[in-house]
Automatic annotation (TrEMBL):
Belongs to the sulfatase family. InterPro entries: Alkaline_phosphatase_core_sf, Sulfatase, Sulfatase_CS, Sulfatase_N. The keyword Protein transport does not apply. Residues 72-489 form the Sulfatase N-terminal domain. This is Arylsulfatase. It comes from Allomesorhizobium camelthorni. The keyword rRNA-binding does not apply. One of its GO terms (molecular function) is metal ion binding. It comes from the Bacteria. It holds the Pfam family Sulfatase. Keywords: Calcium, Hydrolase, Metal-binding, Signal.
Length: 839
């Protein structure tokens, strides 16, 4: 028999000291911590004894890796598109009792920052690096071929999930995954950028920026699932909480001593705002918003001062009448609509907070809350204004240039607002109020309304200053080093043989001390940049660019020189909490010094090249499994191919040819569809007749239909579309005028034209992001509820489906034509061009 000492084990993994070992080494029940500088930890040398036969030999098992003894469980919660003034915890009027509870049992933070946009914030949150360092200068759907913008988390930036997993934690991710590149989101992978590939053992959620909460594009790990089918009133907010509770219960019953790390990221309150009827009624009966958004803003401001969330001398800027129409200038019909919009938003926020509370309660019921670090971040950016000044029943309309749908048109959806019939967003007037005491919104990285969040943190076993207030400057990149510090786990130097880039955040664990309220901030410098708007925080000063684009102004020519073609503003945040007093004119040297420092930070963290374009980047070329292909052939049903990995038909000519066999008795069903109720197309058989239909953002449906029922036997159905525009290409990267042009569609059966229709305009930008490219049936929502209900399986035999796409290639002469053209939205309205430069 050979005894293996702790020293021998440490030597065998080439690491030293600090390990904690329990049980007899070599026995099946032994455990050990690891120094953690190398992941995965090297296998220890075999410590048993091998002879010629088993009876004379000694078995030996490598110890199971566990975290340090006092390492806490971690529940990391981040909500979506929720500004500083949304939750009741920080002065808002929307009840958030769960966030209140976490704050009352722990600490409330009023100076934590985001990046101003969702997936960039989330990349920073899980890597501890700045969003450009992590490849997420923008969302994946806008990614470009530069290191800071390619939407790929590089292998030298292991996530907190991976680090904790290799140190013995059970790691999971629930909800929104907006960190898988749009061009790697299909069922064929690769999966290295999915949650499972990023170190999260279990994933239950949706991939992309948003999801229909009634019928989401939902995944368990990498398999699409449909738990909502056949269930009335199923909603992802509850469904996700149920799954998280089930996961934690199974873990507790199977390995009660195994610590967990849960990233919990509900879709709330990103559009579409989809609360249940119960919560809509609760909020409606409270009459929180009847007096309009200016009164709401004033009420939140007073609440914040009363609660000590903001200093008494904080200034509230005047209502921006040049940006958003004052409440008393709205028509009674507009006021009625806007109140409905915001009540649905508020119900969604309250509903989500309630379901988060169920998860925390389940942890308490297991007896584990005392040693659970709960980090509850309100919002990944400021409140979204992407509904525009009037709101919208269909967010997809915004992304296609319809950002001010008339109130009388929107009223058609008034009674179903927030149900599965809408993909709804609210008026930006409410968004401005929900960012109180700051100004501007999500996307605006130079204004605190876009980047200032709040947060509550509890850890009953360690944090004793119950209800304490912390105002130290922090950023979401600080979360990873904080978790590692309190868990006693170092940031790894090497992961999978890859040397790791340094963590760029600063742990805020020092603020957990009882007397830390006045402790100086340790995070002293931080840059911000999003789509050409930028800022720099340094030791209480904030240099920022003047806002020159509202979030709903996504189309048109962008600022050609976003570094220099700017009006620079300067603020002393130690005296001006709300960033309301621009003192740049009085401190020109400070402005110059701060700009120089911003450039240094930008070079350090992959921020260059700056790019102020917005919508143009959505149609910019990027990797795609269809890249370089113009012909696609399918012979079997297939569903679930996401928009980012499917053949793109917008701004192109195309031909679809289906060779099918009709059985005796006729056939119907979907041949090919992409998109759904809120934008998309369908090629199908309806009561035996061939149909092609375009759903133009739920405002108009154009149908080509054959007059005759197809007889039994072989048939060839073809839809051919000739696009009138010049399309888009790399030369027109920053010019949107060639998009959304019209064209002529022709439906033929067995070589004979049966229907011809001209579209005056087409969709310029996107179909419905959360719907897929489906062959042989239709998942989630259909493109025309009047014709069919999903899944609408094809009952004919599909022999072959061929799709040919003719994408126009632009020449220099085409560019000159585009420069004099006027872009139009799908509803025919002119798309507003944003003039570059200071405004």
């Amino acid at each position: 028999m050979v005894a293996v000492s702790v020293a021998t084990l440490l030597s065998s993994v080439a690491l030293a000291t600090a390990q904690e070992v329990s049980g007899e080494l070599g026995s099946p029940g032994a455990t050990t911590t690891i120094p953690g500088n190398q992941l995965p930890a090297p296998e220890p040398a075999f410590g048993g004894d091998i002879k010629n036969d088993a009876l004379e030999s000694k078995a030996w098992w490598a110890p199971r890796i566990v975290p340090p003894k006092e390492a806490p469980n971690v529940l990391l919660i981040i909500t979506d598109d929720s500004g500083f003034g949304v939750p009741s915890t920080f002065g808002g009027v929307i009840p958030t009792p769960t966030l209140d509870q976490v704050a009352n049992e722990g600490l409330r933070y009023t100076n934590i920052h985001s990046t101003a946009l969702c997936s960039p914030t989330r990349a920073a949150l899980i890597t501890g690096r700045n969003h450009h360092s992590a490849g997420f200068g923008v969302i994946s759907e806008q990614s470009t071929g530069f290191p800071g913008y390619n939407s790929i988390i590089a292998e030298d930036k292991a996530t907190i999930g991976r680090i904790l997993l290799d140190n013995g934690y059970a790691t999971s991710w629930f909800g929104k995954d907006h960190n898988t590149p749009a061009f790697a989101a299909s069922s064929v992978g690769p999966f290295d950028q999915w949650p499972r590939g990023l170190g999260f053992e279990y994933f239950y959620g949706f991939v992309g920026g948003d999801a229909n909460q009634w019928q989401p594009n939902l995944f368990r790990n990498t398999t699409q699932i449909y738990p909502f089918e056949g269930k009335k009133d199923w909603n992802l907010i509850t469904g996700m909480a149920d799954d998280a509770i089930d996961y934690l219960t199974r873990l507790n019953q199977t390995m009660p001593d195994k610590p967990f790390f849960v990233k919990y990221a509900p879709g709330a309150t990103h559009a579409p705002h989809h609360p249940t009827e119960e919560w809509v009624k609760k909020i409606h009966d409270m009459h929180l918003f009847d007096e309009g958004y200016e009164k709401l803003r004033a009420q939140i401001f007073e609440n914040q001062k009363r609660l000590g969330v903001i200093p008494e001398d904080t200034q509230l800027e005047a209502w921006p009448k040049d940006v958003l129409k004052p409440w008393d200038e709205l028509t009674p019909e507009a006021q009625k609509l806007f109140i409905k919009q915001v009540e649905i938003f508020a119900a969604y926020a309250a509903y989500s907070d309630h379901e988060i509370g169920r998860i925390i309660q389940s942890i308490e019921d297991m007896g584990k809350l005392d040693n659970t670090l709960v980090i509850y971040i309100n919002g990944d950016n400021g409140t979204s204004a992407e509904g525009g000044p009037l709101g919208t029943p269909n967010e997809v309309a915004f992304f296609n240039g319809v950002n001010e749908m008339p109130v009388d048109v929107q009223m058609k959806w008034y009674d179903v607002w927030g149900t599965e019939q809408t993909y709804n967003h609210m008026s930006a007037g409410w968004s401005w109020a929900f960012d109180t005491p700051f100004t501007w919104f999500k996307q605006n990285a130079s204004k605190l309304g876009g980047i200032r969040q709040n947060m509550a943190v509890s850890w009953p076993a360690k944090i004793k200053d119950k209800g304490g207030h912390r105002d130290q400057f922090t950023h979401v990149i600080d979360v990873v080093p904080t978790i590692l510090e309190v868990a006693g786990i170092p940031a790894p130097e090497v992961v999978d043989g890859i040397n790791q880039a340094p963590i760029e955040g600063t742990s805020f664990a020092y603020t957990f001390a009882d007397d830390a309220e006045k402790t100086p901030s340790r995070h002293t410098t931080q840059y911000f940049e999003m789509m050409g708007q930028w800022a720099l925080y340094h030791e209480g000063w904030l240099l920022s660019t003047k806002v020159n684009r509202a979030p709903w102004e996504a189309f048109g020519a962008a600022n050609p020189d976003p570094l220099n073609n700017q009006v620079l503003e300067l603020y002393d945040l130690t005296k001006d909490y709300s960033q309301s007093q621009d003192i740049a004119a009085a401190h020109p040297d400070k402005v110059k010094e701060m700009k120089k420092l911003f450039i240094e930070e930008a070079k350090k963290y992959q921020v260059f090249p700056l790019d102020a374009s917005v919508a143009a980047r959505i149609v910019a070329p990027r990797p795609n499994i269809t890249a370089g292909r113009t012909e696609f052939v399918y012979t079997h049903p297939m569903v679930g191919l996401p928009q980012g990995d499917s053949p793109a038909l917008l701004n192109s000519s195309y031909t679809m040819t289906a060779d099918i066999e009709i059985p005796e008795g006729g056939a119907e069903g979907m041949i090919l569809t992409s998109g759904g109720r809120f934008a998309g197309y369908g090629f199908y058989l309806l009561k035996g007749k061939p149909v092609f239909l375009w759903n133009l953002i739920d405002l108009k449906r154009v149908k080509w239909e054959g007059p005759d029922v197809l007889s039994p036997g072989q048939h060839t159905i073809e839809f051919d579309f000739k696009y009138d525009g010049l399309g888009v290409g790399t030369l027109a990267y920053n010019n949107m005028s060639g998009l959304g042009r019209g064209g002529t569609g022709t439906l033929s059966v067995d070589g004979k034209v049966v229907a011809t229709e001209k579209l005056e305009r087409t969709l310029p930008m996107i179909l419905q992001w959360d719907e897929s490219f489906d062959i042989g049936s239709d998942t989630l929502t259909g493109v025309n509820d009047a014709d069919y209900q999903p899944p609408f399986p094809l009952t004919a035999k599909l022999n072959k489906l061929t799709l040919k796409v003719d994408r126009p290639q632009l020449t220099e002469a085409d560019i000159k034509k585009l420069d004099t053209a006027q872009a139009t939205a799908v509803d025919g309205s002119p798309i507003k061009h944003v003039q570059p430069g200071p405004q």
